[in-house]
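Narrative of accomplishments. A recurring question from our advisory board has been how the design workflow behaves on a single, concrete structure rather than in aggregate. To address it, we present the structure tokens for one chain from the evaluation set, followed by the sequence designed for it. No filtering or post-editing was applied between the two.
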């Protein structure tokens, strides 16, 4: 179920509030352009600055808009175990197909603490859970033995969005975790290398603006057309690099504003791009013929 190109969808705002109409439009745009799943309320969806009510509402809108056509994997992680349980229970009740749980951030739990955190959440819900390992944001890496232990002890912990930026770590996950444990890229630039070692797809930022190409990369690779997949990968790479010239989701949301897809409005402490970086972004978008 959770394979292929899965978009980490932005949360569009209008005058400081969630633009519910535009969010529905973006969900339909993704479905119409071959995306295989949607993650609302992730990093790209600005989950840290959504209120609890907004967080729940965004998930509900995505579930309603998608109408079962593709899976919704709700971002429900927190650095508070109790809060993560509450959010995950809500997502399950609302009809989400799965939950994406980020490593607790700022409080820096030990590996035992990480194990107990994720297990406590898994014990409270029946929906599938995907771990989200992103030490660059959370300051903690889920070590492979911890990941394998969770996969073995919790039947509904079914995979990981791996965003440590290490192909070596990705390979260890494939070697040491159960064979059916899903390895999903959390880095757009590493999708092709991940597929080559047995990964199943990408939870993507750049799919917000080029969903067809991200989906085509995975499909083409899976069809055994390796050279063609490489060509798609290298075509996308400069645009992917432009998506991260500043903190995600600043560039992708700015790009969507330039492309007329939604407002580029963000919530502080995120802010508008520096002029030099904005020019880099515009150059990449023009080269890709998006603006």
């Amino acid at each position: 179920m959770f394979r292929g190109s899965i978009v980490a969808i932005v949360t569009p705002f209008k005058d400081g509030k969630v633009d519910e109409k535009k969010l529905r439009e973006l969900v339909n745009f993704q479905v119409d352009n071959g995306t295989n799943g949607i993650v609302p309320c992730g990093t790209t969806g600005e989950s840290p600055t959504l209120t609890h009510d907004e967080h729940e509402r965004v998930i509900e809108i995505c579930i309603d808009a998608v109408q079962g056509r593709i899976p919704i994997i709700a971002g429900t992680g927190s650095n508070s175990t109790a809060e993560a349980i509450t959010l995950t229970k809500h997502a399950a009740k609302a009809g989400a197909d799965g939950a994406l749980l980020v490593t607790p951030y700022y409080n820096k739990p030990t590996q035992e603490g990480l194990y107990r955190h994720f297990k406590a959440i898994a014990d409270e819900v029946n929906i599938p859970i995907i771990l989200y390992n992103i030490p660059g944001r959370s300051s903690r890496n889920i070590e492979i033995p911890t990941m394998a232990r969770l996969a073995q002890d919790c039947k509904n912990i079914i995979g990981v969005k791996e965003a440590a930026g290490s192909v070596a770590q990705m390979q260890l996950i494939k070697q040491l975790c159960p064979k059916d444990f899903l390895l999903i890229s959390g880095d757009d630039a590493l999708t092709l290398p991940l597929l080559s070692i047995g990964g199943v797809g990408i939870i993507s930022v750049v799919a917000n603006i080029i969903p067809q190409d991200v989906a085509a990369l995975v499909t083409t690779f899976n069809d055994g057309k390796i050279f063609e997949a490489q060509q798609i990968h290298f075509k996308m790479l400069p645009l992917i690099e432009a998506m991260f010239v500043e903190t995600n989701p600043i560039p992708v949301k700015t790009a969507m504003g330039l492309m007329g897809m939604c407002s580029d409005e963000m919530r502080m402490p995120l802010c508008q791009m520096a002029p030099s970086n904005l020019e880099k972004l515009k150059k990449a978008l023009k080269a890709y013929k998006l603006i």
